[in-house]
From TrEMBL:
CDD domains: AAT_like. GO terms for molecular function: transaminase activity. The keyword rRNA-binding does not apply. InterPro entries: Aminotransferase_I/II_large, NHTrfase_class1_PyrdxlP-BS, PyrdxlP-dep_Trfase, PyrdxlP-dep_Trfase_major. It comes from Sulfitobacter profundi. Belongs to the class-I pyridoxal-phosphate-dependent aminotransferase family. This is Aminotransferase. Its EC number is 2.6.1.-. It comes from the Bacteria. Keywords: Aminotransferase, Transferase. PROSITE patterns: AA_TRANSFER_CLASS_1 (PS00105).
């Protein structure tokens, strides 16, 4: 399978671990496992639990504990609607591989993470780009989206909050996108890896999987939760779709590492503390955080 080179990843690979100041960082400053354990307040129990962990493949679809914690991030999802993956990047790749075939019409809202147009292109889909513009506050023009829709549109791929612009679609706008998609029975894939970092309230905007029966939300531990090194992500969506994704996932994942899932569950169960720190940093009120003190994507 031919695929375009992943521009931002290649650029980051070259520079991110050798630069003094990483101004291209996209995660909330990563925390150490020690900081996670302190924030979770579980100091004495962790080693015992790790020692007792049997290093088999573990729960194939993701541990119940983690899937329950992830489901708790959504309004209408339960364990059965969550599948764990190798990062959000793994979740996105699996959704595209599962749903897109040669010749399908896909609308990708850009700029965005390159997966959302280069993977469908590599599969042979007809990918049309809907450009975000500064004059619209980098929010999609929904009339333009309506005009691009076709009876055979298979997917609208988007990202909220948006990387790289930071623009945030609210619940009403997501619901309108769902209505537009519904007319063609199209899927809406929303990469929500930055969910939790909104500038107000609890940081969580609405999720497409809670708004639309063909809505798929992908996310992971890297950004708001400051734990990119765990390489854990997930797909949240209809159970029947997850069963189809499993067919592909059996070929390239088997299961996600048990240690990674363990610490991810711990983090999500302690997300109040983790997000309190994240919001101090991303909302500009942190005194302790220093640019460039850590290195990660
Ligand atoms: C929009 C977007 N999606 C997915 C990813 C990959 O995230 P993860 O580290 O969870 O695989 C990134 C990483 O920068 C991203 O910006």
């Amino acid at each position: 399978m031919k695929i375009a080179t992943f521009g931002v990843e290649m650029w980051m690979n070259e520079f991110e671990n050798h630069c003094r100041y990483n101004l291209a960082e996209t995660c909330v400053d990563s925390i150490t496992l020690g900081e996670l354990i302190d924030m979770a307040g579980v100091d004495n129990s962790v080693l015992g639990e790790l020692r007792g962990m049997r290093m088999g493949y573990g729960a194939i679809e993701g541990s119940d504990r983690l899937r329950d914690a992830v489901a708790g991030l959504y309004e209408t999802q339960s364990r059965e609607n969550i599948l764990t993956t190798h990062g959000t990047i793994g979740a996105n790749a699996l959704v595209h591989q599962t749903l897109i075939s040669r010749g399908d019409h896909v609308i990708a809202i850009v700029p965005t993470y390159q997966q959302h147009y280069s993977i469908p292109e590599s599969i042979g889909a007809e990918v049309e780009l809907l450009h975000l513009r500064p004059e619209n506050g980098f929010l999609p023009d929904l009339n333009e989206l309506r005009a691009m829709m076709r009876p055979d549109t298979r997917m609208i791929a988007t990202n909220n909050p948006n990387n790289p612009t930071g623009a945030l679609m609210d619940r009403a706008m997501l619901a309108e996108i769902a209505e537009i998609a519904r007319g063609s029975e199209a899927w809406v894939l929303c990469d929500e890896v930055y969910r939790g970092t909104d500038q107000t309230g609890d940081g969580y905007t609405a999720s497409i999987c809670d708004l639309y029966d063909r809505g798929i939300s992908t996310a992971g531990m890297s950004k708001a939760y400051s734990l990119a090194g765990l390489r854990v992500g997930w797909v949240a969506g209809p159970q029947a779709l997850l069963e189809k994704i499993m067919i592909h996932r059996d070929y390239n994942t088997i299961s996600v590492g048990g240690i990674d899932e363990y610490f991810s569950a711990l983090a999500l169960e302690s997300r109040a503390q983790i997000l309190e720190r994240a919001h101090r940093i991303t909302r500009g009120t942190s005194k302790s955080w220093q640019i460039g003190s850590r290195r990660s994507r």
